[in-house]
Amino acid sequence: MKIALITDIHANAQAFSAVLEHAQTQGVTDYALLGDFVGYGGDPGWVLDKVRELVSRGAVAVLGNHDAAVAKGEAPTMRDEAQAAVVWTHARLSTEQLAFLAQLPLSITVEDRLFVHANGFDPGGWAYVQGRLEAMRSLHATSCRFTFCGHMHEPMLYHLSGTGKAGEFTPTPGVTIPLLPNRQWLVIPGSCGQPRDGNPAACYAIFDAVSGNLNFQRVPYDVEGAAASIRAAGLPERLAERLLTGQ
C-alpha cells in the first residue's frame, strides 16, 4: 500500500492537480491529506471539491489552521495577507464546503500511523515543528511509530531511537529512505501549494506501508498560472510572488 502524503495545498489548483497526476504514475493507492487545503491561493472551491472526492474514496484528511480560520471566518492572529485570504476564501465557499472544513478532525490514527497538521503534542495549538526539539516533543507524545504532519512548508525527516537519541535529515527528492523498525519517525512532506525552501516545485511524499520505505517528491507545475489565479482574485501580490520564488 503506497500512501501519498500531501499537505498545505493552500488553494493551489495547479500544484494539487500536478501532484495527483504524478502520484498516479507512482503506483499510489491511498491518500493522506494533512490540512491547510485553503488560504493564500485563488482556487479554494476546486481544491476542496477534489479533497472531498478523495475523502469519499477513503482518503485521510485532517484540519489545518487556515482551514479552521476559514471555517470560522476569522483569523485574528494571522498576518495581514493571510487574514485577507481567509476573509476572501470564506466568502466564496458554499455552505457544504464550509461544513466539510468545520468537521475535519485535528488528528487521525490508523494502526501505527498518526496523521496531523501541526504536531503530535498539541494539534490545536498550531505550534511548528521547527527543529529537533519540537520533533522530539511530538514523537514523545504518541506511541505511534510514524507521525505524518504538515504546517512547515519545507520537507524534513526526524527520528527517535529506542534510547531517546534524536536525529534529523533533509531529504533528497526521489531517493528511497528505509524507515528502520527500531525508531519512531516524523515525516514532514513539505508544501504542495506553497513551498518555502527556494524551490517552486510542489512537494509531497510517498510512504509504502508494507516495506516501510519513504520517498520525497518534487513536481514542477504551472506556477505562473497559479500566480495569475491569485492576482485575478485580487488577493495580495505577495502571495503570487512567493510562488514564483518558492519562498
From TrEMBL:
InterPro entries: Ap4A_hydrolase, Calcineurin-like_PHP_lpxH, Metallo-depent_PP-like, Pesterase_MJ0912. It comes from Roseateles albus. Residues 1-209 form the Calcineurin-like phosphoesterase domain. Pfam families: Metallophos_2. This is Metallophosphoesterase family protein. Belongs to the metallophosphoesterase superfamily. YfcE family. SUPFAM superfamilies: Metallo-dependent phosphatases.
